[in-house]
């Protein structure tokens, strides 16, 4: 629901991503162990350049998998990640070099002419059990910006 209707307002944007962090994290090994292609990876110390040509040197390795579900439901987004890791040979927290497992939830609240619209979603017991089983912490970022 990317359309903005001035009468109804804009819908919330919901992004959920799995991040694995570690000083000695090997993205190729993580990909092999999880059986899923990452959305993005960075190796500690490996230089890269931003679109403004600024050099960046990561201080820690990162493996990221961003849910591609278009749903506004947190549970649907978590299910998308869970399905991608169905063929994992072990839990992300058990992979050598992984020091932290995080599921990041970002919600940009929708709005109409009268301000922010309500957003309701839930995590199921199955979602919570899966998050626990992979050793993930869950971080939330909720923002509101006017159209």
Give the secondary structure arrangement, pairings included:
Layout: E1 4-5, E2 9-10, E3 13-22, H1 27-34, E4 40-42, E5 48-49, E6 55-56, E7 61-66, H2 74-84, E8 100-109, E9 111-112, E10 115-116, H3 125-133, E11 137-144
Parallel strand pairs: 8-11
Antiparallel strand pairs: 1-2, 3-7, 3-8, 4-7, 5-6, 9-10
Structural notes for this entry:
With 147 residues, the chain is of the alpha+beta class. The chain has one domain. 19% of the residues lie in helices and 33% in strands. It has three helices and eleven strands. The chain has helices spanning 27-34, 74-84, 125-133; strands at residues 4-5, 9-10, 13-22, 40-42, 48-49, 55-56, 61-66, 100-109, 111-112, 115-116, 137-144. It has a five-stranded mixed sheet with strand order 4-7-3-8-11, with helices on one face. The protein has a two-stranded antiparallel sheet with strand order 1-2. Strands 5-6 form a two-stranded antiparallel sheet. β1 and β2 form a beta hairpin. The radius of gyration is 17 Å and the shape is globular. Residues 1-7 have low confidence and may be disordered.
Beta-strand segment tally: 11
Question: How would you state the average pLDDT, rounded?
Answer: 87
Number of domains: 1
Q: What is the H/E order?
A: EEEHEEEEHEEEHE
Strand-pairing-aware structural class: alpha+beta
How large, in whole angstroms, is the Cα Rg?
17 Å
- The side-by-side strand order for the widest beta sheet comes to 4-7-3-8-11
The unreliable regions are: 1-7
> What is the tally of helical segments?
3
Helix content: 10-25%
Strand content: 25-35%
Distance between the termini: 15 Å
């Amino acid at each position: 629901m990317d359309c903005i209707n001035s009468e109804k307002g804009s819908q919330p944007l919901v992004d959920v991503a799995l991040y694995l962090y570690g000083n000695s994290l090997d993205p190729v090994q993580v990909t092999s162990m999880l059986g899923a292609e990452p959305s993005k990876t960075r190796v500690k110390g490996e230089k890269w350049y931003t679109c403004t040509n600024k050099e960046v040197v990561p201080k820690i390795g990162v493996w990221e998998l961003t849910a591609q579900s278009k749903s506004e439901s947190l549970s649907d987004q978590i299910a998308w990640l869970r399905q991608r890791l169905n063929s994992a040979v072990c839990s992300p927290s058990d992979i050598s070099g992984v020091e932290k497992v995080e599921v990041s939830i970002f919600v940009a609240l929708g709005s109409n002419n009268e301000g922010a619209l309500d957003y309701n979603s839930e995590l199921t017991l199955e979602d919570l059990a899966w998050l626990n089983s992979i050793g993930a912490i869950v971080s939330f970022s909720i923002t509101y910006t006017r159209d």
